[in-house]
């Protein structure tokens, strides 16, 4: 590794050594995963028009996020036994294979199988990118590299919807996935060529026993999400209620099993206890992650079905939500700590207002009002999330800060998976179980967002409990059990 001054990063020397090029190739995995994740919503109307299966739309995000959660948890542990380069190549090929299945699928069921494989590959690529920074680069430049990674997420969130819309309108939705097939194959080849250092071609030396993989907990999570998503297909009161109840029990069991396994835990102790900032903060993360899925999954489908709004326009709206997130995160980044509570609560109110606003603006079809709701929802996340994460990590008990920092994005992904499954239940119960038609879409548009307003309220109440009263030392909070 190139030695870099702790005071100043010599980017020219970093490039000359090959480390910067190596990092660029590693970051391609984040770009592939995040762009694909945000692209699917804009291709959904064209895809459903060709493959049918509107009842399974909610599965497209739920199954992808589920694969990403499982693979992300596994990849960080596999590098202790399998070389980093091998892990990266296999993950990229897995991602490319999933994208190819999606691009060529003749049915929605096969498409969803491709999405699961894509999620496994994409989740592993993201996890391995963060592992690569620790393994391959000097600690002195970690802040700069993590900053670049954050910028990549912003670019991907903006470019994904536009890419999907442009490819669908100019060629076909299948070509959108074809691009990711080529990208995954290129990533695999680049990883094999570029990751040629000893750190990347040998398993990580372990001085002790590696943390066990949380098989039981993740198995419960997978079963729970599938059960909840299945409850929304072919709606029948007894069957759907039973599957929904079993799915919720599975979620409770997932968190219970996770709490019993200290060495492989994914979440900090007292996860949802509102008596602590950590518990209230994680409740806020869970509530808003579940509640905000509806527009990302069904928004373009509803807008094109009800109001003949073009895919490119819906792509711009979704991209605007991501841009608001990024810009407001930057604008409030240097706010003084005394404003922390106000900022978190203000962001929560913005998110809840966006959720409630969609219930009115989507049926109405007013693009300016829909855009305002998207900006409120994305901007609310941008305002609140950096400070919320800081509070959760700083307030975690001694020894759990690392777990707490990783728990926020993990909970967010679980929320997206569960939220997409629940959105599928609401959409199908409201009319999509009978197929895609204007009357069904109008009914779905009325209920889909209203159904999640209560969770938005829960998120706002949790936000009030997240921060300490002004003036109370953060150290006092961190010391609390």
Please state the CA-atom Rg, rounded to the nearest Å. Answer: 22 Å
Shape: globular
Number of strands: 0
Pick out the low-confidence regions.
1-7, 469-481
* Distance linking N and C termini: 41 Å
The DSSP helix count reads: 19
Largest sheet: none
Mean pLDDT: 77
Name the helix and strand elements from N-terminus to C-terminus, one letter apiece: HHHHHHHHHHHHHHHHHHH
Structural class: mainly alpha
Measured as a percent range, the helix fraction is over 70%
User: Strand content of the residues, in percent?
Assistant: under 5%
Structural account:
- The structure is a single chain.
- With 481 residues, the chain is mainly α.
- The chain has 19 helices and no strands.
- The protein has helices at residues 11-17, 19-51, 57-78, 84-104, 108-136, 142-170, 173-194, 198-201, 215-231, 237-260, 277-291, 293-307, 311-331, 340-364, 367-395, 401-430, 438-448, 453-466, 474-478.
- The longest helix is centred in the N-terminal third of the chain and has 33 residues, at 19-51.
- It is globular and about 60 Å long.
- Residues 1-7 and 469-481 have low confidence and may be disordered.
SSE diagram, text form:
Layout: H1 11-17, H2 19-51, H3 57-78, H4 84-104, H5 108-136, H6 142-170, H7 173-194, H8 198-201, H9 215-231, H10 237-260, H11 277-291, H12 293-307, H13 311-331, H14 340-364, H15 367-395, H16 401-430, H17 438-448, H18 453-466, H19 474-478
Helix pairs in contact: 2-3, 2-5, 2-6, 2-7, 2-12, 2-13, 3-5, 3-9, 3-16, 4-5, 4-7, 6-7, 6-13, 9-10, 9-16, 11-15, 11-16, 11-18, 12-13, 12-16, 12-17, 13-15, 14-15, 14-17, 14-18, 15-16, 16-17
């Amino acid at each position: 590794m190139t030695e870099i001054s702790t005071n100043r990063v010599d980017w020219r020397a970093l490039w000359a050594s090959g480390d910067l090029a190596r990092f660029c190739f590693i970051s391609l995995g984040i770009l592939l995963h995040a762009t694909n994740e945000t692209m699917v919503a804009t291709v959904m109307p064209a895809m459903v028009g060709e493959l049918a299966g509107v009842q399974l739309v909610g599965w497209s995000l739920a199954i992808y996020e589920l694969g990403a959660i499982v693979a992300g948890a596994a990849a960080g542990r596999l590098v202790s036994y399998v070389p980093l380069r091998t892990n990266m190549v296999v993950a990229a090929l897995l991602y490319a294979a999933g994208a190819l299945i999606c691009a060529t699928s003749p049915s929605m069921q096969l498409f969803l199988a491709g999405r699961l494989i894509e999620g496994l590959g994409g989740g592993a690529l993201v996890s391995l990118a963060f592992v690569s920074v620790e393994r391959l680069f000097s600690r002195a430049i970690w802040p700069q590299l993590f900053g670049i990674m954050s910028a990549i997420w912003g670019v991907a969130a903006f470019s994904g919807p536009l890419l999907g819309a442009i490819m669908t309108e100019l060629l076909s939705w299948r070509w959108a996935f074809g691009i990711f097939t080529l990208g995954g194959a290129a990533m695999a080849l680049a990883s094999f060529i570029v990751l040629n250092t000893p750190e990347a071609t040998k398993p990580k030396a372990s001085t002790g026993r590696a943390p066990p993989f949380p098989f039981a907990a993740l198995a419960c999570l997978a079963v729970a999400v599938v059960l909840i998503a299945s409850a929304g297909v072919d709606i029948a009161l007894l069957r759907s209620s039973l599957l929904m109840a079993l799915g919720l029990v599975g979620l409770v069991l997932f968190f219970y099993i996770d709490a019993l396994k200290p060495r492989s835990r994914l979440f900090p102790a007292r996860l949802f206890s509102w008596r602590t900032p950590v518990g209230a903060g994680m409740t806020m993360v869970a509530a808003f992650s579940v509640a905000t899925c509806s527009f990302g999954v069904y928004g373009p489908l509803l807008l094109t079905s009800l109001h003949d709004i073009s895919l490119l326009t819906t792509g711009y709206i979704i991209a605007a939500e991501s841009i608001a997130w990024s810009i407001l995160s930057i604008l409030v980044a240097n706010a003084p700590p005394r404003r922390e509570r106000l900022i978190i609560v203000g962001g929560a109110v913005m998110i809840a207002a966006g959720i409630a606003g969609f219930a009115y603006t989507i049926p109405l079809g007013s693009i300016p009002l829909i855009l305002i709701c998207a900006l409120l929802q994305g901007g609310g996340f941008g305002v609140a999330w950096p400070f919320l994460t800081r509070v959760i990590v700083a307030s975690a008990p001694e020894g759990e800060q690392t777990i707490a920092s990783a728990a926020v994005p993990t909970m967010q992904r679980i929320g997206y998976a569960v939220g997409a499954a629940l959105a599928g239940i609401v959409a199908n119960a409201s009319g999509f179980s009978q197929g895609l038609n204007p009357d069904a879409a109008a009914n779905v548009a009325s209920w889909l967002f209203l159904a999640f307003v209560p969770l938005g309220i829960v998120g706002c109440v949790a936000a009030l409990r997240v921060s300490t009263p002004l003036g109370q030392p953060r150290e006092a909070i961190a010391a609390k059990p």
